[in-house]
Amino acid sequence: MLNAIADKYIIEFSNEFFDTEAAKKYTNFLYNMNGPIKDLPSHFYESFQSITIPGLTAQPISVTGLNNLKNVNFGGKSPSNMTETSVDRQYIGTQSFNQIINSNNISITARNTFINWMYSYEVFRLYFARTKTVKDFRITITVKDAGDIPMLMFIFSDCFITSLPDLEFITNQSIREPRTFDIGFAFNKFDTKFLIPNFNTILDNSINI
What we know:
The chain is α+β, with helices and mostly antiparallel strands. It has four helices and ten strands; from the N terminus they run βαααββββαβββββ. The strands form two sheets. Strands 1, 2, 5, 6, 7, 8, 9 and 10 form an eight-stranded antiparallel beta sheet that branches. Strands 3-4 form a two-stranded antiparallel sheet.
């Protein structure tokens, strides 16, 4: 886990996410409000609080009952350092790299400003319209160190919204606290880039789901 105090991150959506007729009315609404944020993308980014991306997990193959003859000293008639006649071993297996990713979903926690939930709902709903007018989009996460130097970048391509949370309305609380909600996104491609000069990874980090 990255250091939450020393590290900084920037989440950016490609233009396809905001290239809808719905986005125009929200930007127009914000522009005419008495507030510092005048467009939908800025309002969306300002509400983000955290993001969770999947990790990597391999499922090794376990082989049991292998002959335990490695590093055995046969100085006499019987080996002197063999504790068991067989041993179990684990191997990385034959999985492809895209099979070891834990999930093909990322989750973003945002402060509920009503507008960001409403727009997410409209984009989600448009995927199920008879005539699909929304496009898959790209989510880019740039991670910086404490000195504001970009260190690495995660790029999720061909994304679309997969989940919005249940809504809970409560009227009997003495103090009404701001609420957050999680937006789930699926992706079909996952790229990792190291941004430090001469720190390019040895292997291609692109994962196609």
